[in-house]
Amino acid sequence: MKRLLEAELVYGRLLDISEPHLVARYNKALEGLGLQRTALDHFSIDMTGFSPEIADELGDLDYLDPNRVNRRFIILTPAQADLPVVHTSFSNTAALMHEFFNANSRAINAVTIKDALYGEIEDSVSVVEDIDDLLSINEVRFRVLSAEDMLGKATELRELVDRLKKVPTAWADDAMLNRMVELAKVTGDIRQNALVPNELVFRHDAFWANHFGGIYVFLDQKTTTVICDPSVPGFRRSRPWQVSYIAINDHARIYEFLARTNRLQLPQASWVQESGLFQHRADMIIRGLISDADPTADLMNADRIWLQTWIHRNAALVSRDGTYPFLQEMARTIAATGTITMAEVPPEHRFLLVRAAPMHPDQWLVNRLISELVPRDFVSRFVFDKQGFYGAYEHFSEKFREYVVATLTSTYLKDKAAFRHKLYGLKEE
User: Fold this and answer.
1) E strands in 229-328
2) Is 364 helix (H, G, I), strand (E, B) or coil?
3) Which of 25, 345, 351, 397 gives a 20 to 30 Å CA spacing to 298?
């Protein structure tokens, strides 16, 4: 993991917090959440305020996610809106936080000048015991507090202003007027400063949850589709009249569902050849086979000639695995005919040839699912499924880890947006 940290492939792009007033506000927010204060005078945070250093100090990676639902957050600065979410139990946590930041930017900008916001993303369940608990989450509400009680003081001042306007004798209440002056010194003119976030309820759309080894939930107009391990509690038992259940190893049904609902971009020469996706996955597969066969192999210096020589010498192994020759054949087919007849492709190979439909709102979630079904493609796994990538990385040999980090650093990290657009057709908002 040290190599990933040094390359900023884990906990990368976080915001350093070292100013004493910000550390003090963070501690007050921790106390407000019923957590122990940090003794650190320097740490880093993500969009939600999660800090890997404080998690290590507390010995609790889930200190802001105690039951892996009702995620907590701490906002010290509007700059957090541009940070990643590096630890979460739901794939749409970042999207919900973005919605909150965008909808309440004026209030967040005003409050964080003197205070910190903290609270929970509340939903309808307090603990997840089966699939039905996850399916019952339709919307979330942000419960927002402030470390220095700026929100409480702004609300109190607003109530006093209303009383002053509506009660004729209020002008004679010196104690009330003095209290208003005292509050205004802290909050400023609340007629100009929007201090209280006013958009707090947001829809909970399609998502992946890390409960029970990982569950995908897709929402369509009349149906909900769940994809996970069939051993998960509630599989095919939770609301079977309105929920379709697909086992995570049922490639045929997963493909049929994603294709039927227009969530997949099927192979056409127009995008396949421009993206280089087939060649990318073929390269990932052959290098994975090499590492499996010889964990000490030096892939850092393996050029095309070296790779072709290895393939020829290990033709039986490559043929037995089958995926590399298959991709080579599909590349020739698409070059010759411009398309591929997917019905003729074995279900277990179909996801090698597709990517999420770039214009579909579930594109990130679909690409995450595809990357789980094509595990040799560690680049796609890192881009869309970091939890899955980190789990797989633990089982890589040291030489392969070296190659993986070098590959991600020299490709994806150089220009993430351009890389995602070329390989997956994604356009940044």
Assistant:
1) 243-247, 264-265
2) helix
3) 351
Spans of the chain below 70 pLDDT = 155, 157, 162, 187-198, 200, 429
Query: How far is residue 400's CA from residue 393's CA, in Å, rounded to a whole number?
Result: 9
Amino acid at 17: I
Distance CA 330, CA 115 (A): 58
CA 221/CA 224 separation, integer angstroms: 8
| pTM of the model as a whole | 0.88
Which parts of 61-149 fold into alpha helices (H)? 93-103, 105-111, 131-135
For 90, the 3-state DSSP assignment is strand
Inter-residue contact 339 to 268 (CB < 8 Å): yes
The tokens of 377 are what?
């493609």
8 Å CB contact between 65 and 71 = yes
Asked if 92 and 109 touch (Cβ cutoff 8 Å), the reply is no
User: In the beta sheet, which residues pair with residue 43?
Assistant: 17
Rounded to the nearest 5 degrees, what angle is found at the Cα of 88, between the Cα atoms of 57 and 80?
A: 80
Q: Are 233 and 129 in contact (CB under 8 A)?
A: yes
Q: What's the number of CA atoms in the CB half-sphere (13 Å) around residue 93?
A: 28
The pLDDT tens digits for 298-349 are 999 899 999 999 999 999 999 999 999 999 999 999 999 999 999 999 999 9
pLDDT in tens, 47-96: 999 999 999 999 999 999 988 999 999 999 999 999 999 999 999 999 99
Each residue of 112-133: b (16+ CB within 10 Å) or e? bebbbbbbbbbbebeebeebeb
